[in-house]
Each structure stands twice: as structure tokens, then as C-alpha cells.
Amino acid sequence: MTAIDTMGDSKFTNFDNMSLQSIDEDAELIPLLTSEDEEEMSNEVLPETLPILPLRNTVLFPGVVIPITAGRDSSINLIKDANNGSKVIGVVSQKDKDTEKPTVNDINVLGTVARILRVLKMPDGNTTVILQGKKRFEVAEVLTEKPYITATVRETSEERPDHNDPEFLAIIESIKDLALRIIRDNPNIPSEASFAIKNIQSNSFLINFVSSNLNLNVDDKQELLEINNLQERALATLKHMNLELQKLELKNDIQSKVRNDMDQQQREYFLHQQMKTIQEELGGVSHDDEIFEMRKKAKKKKWDDKVKEHFDKELSKMQRMNPQVAEYSIQRNYLDLFLDLPWNEFSKDKFDLKRAQRILDRDHYGLEDVKQRIIEYLAVLKLRNDMKSPILCLYGPPGVGKTSLGKSVAEALGREYVRISLGGLRDEAEIRGHRKTYIGAMPGRIVQSLKKAGTSNPVFILDEIDKLSSSHQGDPSSAMLEVLDPEQNNEFYDNFLEMGYDLSKVMFIATANNLSTIQPALRDRMEIINVTGYTIEEKVEIAKRHLLPKQLKEHGLTSKDLTIGKPQLEKIVEGYTRESGVRSLEKQIAKMVRYAAKNIAIEEEYEVKVTNAIVEKVLGPARLERDKYENNDIAGVVTGLAWTSVGGDILFIESILSKGKGALNITGNLGKVMKESATIAMEYIKSNAERFGIDSEVFDKYNVHIHVPEGATPKDGPSAGVTMLTSLVSLFTQKKVKKSLAMTGEITLRGKVLPVGGIKEKILAAKRARIKEIILCKDNEKDILEIKKEYLKGLKFHYVTDMHEVIDIAITGQKVKNAKKL
Ligand SMILES: Nc1ncnc2c1ncn2[C@@H]1O[C@H](COP(=O)(O)OP(=O)(O)OP(=O)(O)O)[C@@H](O)[C@H]1O
């Protein structure tokens, strides 16, 4: 759009900046057209023929002055000729601006007669000509087309309204108004242009001037030029102006909105910068980067909407905090936990059961039925394929490989492995965490372990679940109930996390030494798998295949540095350990390995192949005599079988008589039930004295003392009943008890023998103690049938229902050496 410049009070127009620069500074300025000028102009007589100058991209309106740059040869020739002659030419617009050599068909026939005001040679070689429109004309007949078009022309009539026509005047006022508003709103038009508008007196010039300067394309301008009725032309111009104004307003609106947004952003940026500087001044560091990093990490988490929303909320809370205050680091810890915890991140299960079997066999000797049950569980898991895992509980004495079995299951499944020990845990918050408002609050052990695991479906070992205890700090078992309940554990609530966490894909494996101390509700939720202890032979195998190689490796040695033969391993098992599992066996083997390591380190000769003498040299004299009471020369000493949480064991019941009045003393740290068994046995003998060949008078002449050695170990349970009774019968009859015999069973006052538990462990303990015969209740026969044949090798079982049968088997006819005369 051509700009208008008015200087001082003189009514001159000039051209846009570009033109101004091109034109000589001192060039005469073109006066604005007055009504008189216009009058004069319309009275000018048109010549009959005119050279026709086609314009590519503008339309010349009567009265308006515009600069034209002529580049085409035909145009330059035309201007040169006309400038030297009458200076009057016909100006028309091209229909298509891209036509290089327009003929008569390529131009609009209605144009404007123009006077050449000035011709300037521009520095770039082009010719600029300043034209002023005079009046409209029509091309009548083309005379020549070369070197430029000449044609006969005729004047186009124009209908003008009456000068005082109020409608026309209103339109003119509106045009002025809008023009001023457009100038005001369009930053590209210098504000001085408004002076020009205000100073235009001629109405038709105003219309032409505005039409010429409006931001319209050539076709629209041509259309305006072609309107013969001035009032109509004024109206059409007004419409275009309206449109232009609307566009401008819209544009300005958008721009101011964008500017507002920018301003807001800039303001925030500015404030942040200021805050950063203040923080740095105060010695702190800015937390912007921290928050940015956290946001970046958060994008990668597979959170559901609820967690995401919560995190975003908490993060913006942190953003508003001062990093110097204590709450800030609490909040930071809290949000870090969200980022570090695995959410819906699962490792893919490997359900190759053959591989699983191989791994279990590789890591554990024996335990066939346990491994079998584990494989069955994995098979079910594979078939169900809902990733919901069963909760297993491996139950048995210490050191039998429960924990390490769990580890192998994790490896077999290809899952991560985590373990927590629940032994002695009393505080519920250990499991569920503390609310984060507490000082030093932390998430519970479950959530902490999952963070460590890094996946949401690890194998999770809950060691010693039987040792959970409750106290005034809450009952951890009730929290465990939620962990282990498949119905609830998909929303396990941790106090620190302040929201539920899905544990349903975690495979929990609990271990326990004692089923009776597990809370019944917890026990109900688990599949119990019994892992019993080992026989001597098995322990030797485990030592040979696993413990020795493992210890050698841990000490940086190989089998070339130390070999321990089977007889020596057996010696170690028998002479230096007394356990169902292999934990202390492993310790003894470690001692043997250290012996080799020490000699290698100090470069001293030593025997690589371990002999019995070396075992004794390293481990000291064998500490445990296998069977102290193997000889049966003393009356009243009987071998019983006991079950403890550390496995089966043999125990001895001793009883003696002393002069007195029939009192019964019981010692050996016995529990209430065991004491009652002693009383029952005593009373039973008294009432059946005759049958056992005892003179009933002796009961009043002697006191009886029953003792169970190893007084430091508390003992309880009914299963020593038969042993106590046998001991008392032997005592009162002074007869020998059968050699290498052990027994277990509860007695009633009627002399019935009742079944007892822990049979498998007891049998293993009996075997270790080289017992040959065992008396059991008839009802315990089914337990024996469940035990593998090889464990039973060399054992003879007597199944009884009545005490008389026990006495018949256990008490020999022979009196003991130095038998008392009662
Ligand atoms: N059958 C076995 N084959 C090979 N190694 C075994 C076997 N049984 C136990 N072990 C080894 O004995 C050690 C003790 O086992 P582990 O810690 O698993 O015992 P545990 O039954 O979990 O004991 P606790 O009840 O005290 O936790 C481990 O090094 C384990 O590898």
C-alpha cells in the first residue's frame, strides 16, 4: 500500500518510504487535488488517440498520483515518447500480471487517462515514472500494438450524486471515519496519513484516493474503477474498508493475546531468575533442574491415572517449597520413592519346567518331594497364566535349604529375588511404613524391597514368618495378612506411600521353623511344604557336592588345594554337628578350608588329602559322643524321640529311687504337659503294679526322681509319655531296657498309646543316633509310609496301641548290673 506523507500545512502528497528514497530529496512535491483541480480536470478534453500503458499490479484512479516502475521495452519507449510529447497517456491494468507482452486481449478496456509528472532514471537501470490519474476512459479501437499499444479512446461517463445528498455525505463521512481508524490500527501506515485524509476536500478524490490505497488486489480495484455511479462506488469502497478494518482488528486481537501470553511467560521467567539469584545469594541451590529431571523421569513411568495425578500434584507442591526447609527434603524423598518404585514393570516369566527342574537339582541335593511340589506349582502358574502367584510356605528345621530353595525358584522363573527377615519383628510400621509426617519416616519393608527388586513381580522370600511377634506397637501379622491375601493385596496400603500398591503379581515364599507359632489366619493363606532334615548320608552328599565346592570357591581355592573324602566328611557330620540341616556342617567345612588357605598363604607344607587326624587337628576332638547311653546297664534310663523347631532329636529319660515316702520329683526344665505325662505314668504304674510284677508297697517307701538331661533346654509336649512310663517300669523292676531302642507316644490314664507329630524328623534323628528299633503308636504307621524307603533302612518299627505292648517290647527279662533290692 502506498503511504501518504503530508508536510506542514501545505497540501502535498508524497510516496512510500521506498519511493522517497528513490526520488531526489529536492523533488517537487505533488499537491493534493482540490475540488477546483478536479473540476478543471474533468473539463479537460480527451485526445482521440492515446498510447496505452498496461500496468501489471495496480490500478490508477483519477486524481491519484502513483509512481510506476517501467521495466519492459515497450513501456520504456512509450514513456519516452510521451514524455517528449503531450505527456498524456492511457493507463490500464493487465488481466494477468504475469503476461509479459500483453496484447489488446490481455488488458482491461476501462482505464484512466494519466499525465506524466516526472520521469526518473533509477540507479538499478529501471525507469520510474510518476503519473497522475485524470479521468476514466475506454479503449475503442486498437490502432497499433508495436512498439506499444495505441488506440482510439472515448471518455466514460460518470453519474454523480448531488453535492448535498445526505446519504452520499453520510457515506463520505463513514469513509473518512473508517480510513482514520484503519490508519490508527495499521502500524504499517504512518500516522501522518490521517492528516491527508482530513485535508481532502473533493469527495470523488477521497473515494479514489482511498480505493487506490486500500489493501486490495488488482481485480477488486479494477471492479471499483469500473463502477460508473459515484455513490455506488463509494458504498463498495466502504464495504472493502469495513472488511479491512475487521481483519485488522482481528489481527491486533490475536497479536495482543500472544503478547499477553508472552508477557506472562516473561514475567514468570523473570521472577524465577530473581528467585534463583536470591537462593544462590543465600547459599542454596536452585531446585528447578531437580524438578525438571523428576518430570523427565516421571514420563517414563507406567503409572495409572490415579498415581500420575497424585505425583503431579505432589510435585507442584514441592515446586512451591523453599529448598531450605526440612519439608522440602521429605517431599523430595517421597517423590523419589515414586520414581524408584517399579510400577507395572514386569519381568517375563520363564516357564520352561525342565530348566526349572535342572536349576533346583543343580542347587539342592535330595529334597525330591519338595522340588516336585515346587515344579507342580510352577506348572499351575504356567497354565493359569494370570500372573497371580501362589503363596508357598517352606517349613522345616534351620539350615535345610528353605531360603536357598526360594532363591532357586526365582532363578528358575527368571524373576528378581528379594528377601526380608521377619524374625523378631514387632512393629506393624516395619511392614506398612510410617506416615510421612513422622520425622525419619520411611516406607515399610515390603515397599522398600520392591524398590530394590526393580520389578513388580519378584520372588519375595519372607524368612521366619513364624517369628513375627506382636507388641504394643501393633500386630505385624495383621499387616502380613493383607500382604498375603490374594483378595486384598492388589491394593496393599503403605502409610508412607499414602496409596495402594499392587502386590498380586509378587510370588511370596515364606519360610518357617515352627508351624504352631504362625498366626492361624496367616497359615490358612499359605500352601505349606514340609522340608525335613537330612540323614547322615545325605549330609555327606550335600557336603561333597555343594558345601565343599562352595567354600573352596569363597576362599579362592580349588579342589586341587583340598580334598575331603567321604569317611572324613562323615566324621565331621557325626562328631562335630548335631542338627537337622547343614548350616553348622558348612561352618565346619569352612574351617577345614581355612586350614588349607592359611597354609597356602604362609607357604607351609600341608596334606591336601584330609585324614581323620587332620580333621581332629583342625576341628579339635570330636565333641559329640554319638550315643552316651548305648549301654543299657542302668535301670530307668530310656531313649525317647523329640521334635524341636530345629529338627528331631533323641532325648533320655532318667529316673532314680531314693528312700522316702513316695514323693515324685521332676527336673530338666520340663513344661506343664511333660510334667503331667510323668504324673500319669506314675499313677498308671501304681494302679497296674501287679501286672508289671511290682510290689505296691515300694511306692510308699521310696521317692522317685525323674530327670531329662540338658536342663538348659526347655522341653515340653506329650510325646515323652511312653518313654517315662518305660523308664519307671525299668526302675521299679530293676530290669534292663532293650538296647538301641527308642520310642515316642502319648499315654492316657487307661494305658492307651496315642499318636504324636514330627515323626519324620524324629526318625531322622533316631537314624543319626544309630537307633535300631522304634516303638510308635499304631496310628503313626501312616506317617512312616510317607517316608522314603532309604530313610527307613536299618530301622525296625513296633506299632502299639497299649502300654503293656510297649513294656513287653522294651523291658528285657534281665536284671541290670548291681540291681537294687527293693
Ligand atoms: N539340599 C541341599 N543341597 C545343597 N545345599 C543345601 C541343601 N540344603 C541346604 N543347603 C545349603 O545350606 C545352607 C543353609 O540353607 P538355608 O539358609 O537355605 O537354610 P534355611 O532352611 O533357610 O534356614 P533358616 O530356617 O535358618 O532360615 C545354604 O548355603 C544352602 O545352600
TrEMBL record:
EC code(s) of this entry: 3.4.21.53
Catalytic residues of the enzyme: 719, 762
Chief location category: cytoplasm
Domain Lon proteolytic: 632-813
Molecular function as annotated in GO: ATP binding; ATP hydrolysis activity; ATP-dependent peptidase activity; sequence-specific DNA binding; serine-type endopeptidase activity
Inducing or repressing factors: By heat shock.
Domain Lon N-terminal: 50-245
Compartments reported by the entry: Cytoplasm
InterPro entries documented for this protein: AAA+_ATPase, ATPase_AAA_core, Lon_bac, Lon_bac/euk-typ, Lon_lid, Lon_proteolytic, Lon_Prtase, Lon_prtase_N
Alphabetically ordered keywords of this record: ATP-binding, Cytoplasm, Hydrolase, Nucleotide-binding, Protease, Serine protease, Stress response
Domain of life: Bacteria
Gene Ontology cellular component list: cytoplasm
Keyword tRNA-binding tagged: no
Enzyme class: hydrolase
Catalysed reactions listed for this entry: Hydrolysis of proteins in presence of ATP
Binding site for ATP: 396-403
GO terms under biological process: cellular response to heat; protein quality control for misfolded or incompletely synthesized proteins
Protein family according to the UniProt entry: Belongs to the peptidase S16 family.
Entry-linked PANTHER family: ATP DEPENDENT LON PROTEASE FAMILY MEMBER (PTHR10046)
Subunit architecture: Homohexamer. Organized in a ring with a central cavity.
Protein role: ATP-dependent serine protease that mediates the selective degradation of mutant and abnormal proteins as well as certain short-lived regulatory proteins. Required for cellular homeostasis and for survival from DNA damage and developmental changes induced by stress. Degrades polypeptides processively to yield small peptide fragments that are 5 to 10 amino acids long. Binds to DNA in a double-stranded, site-specific manner.
The protein, known as: Lon protease
Source organism of the structure: Zobellia galactanivorans (strain DSM 12802 / CCUG 47099 / CIP 106680 / NCIMB 13871 / Dsij)
Lineage: Bacteria, Pseudomonadati, Bacteroidota, Flavobacteriia, Flavobacteriales
Gene assigned in the entry: lonA
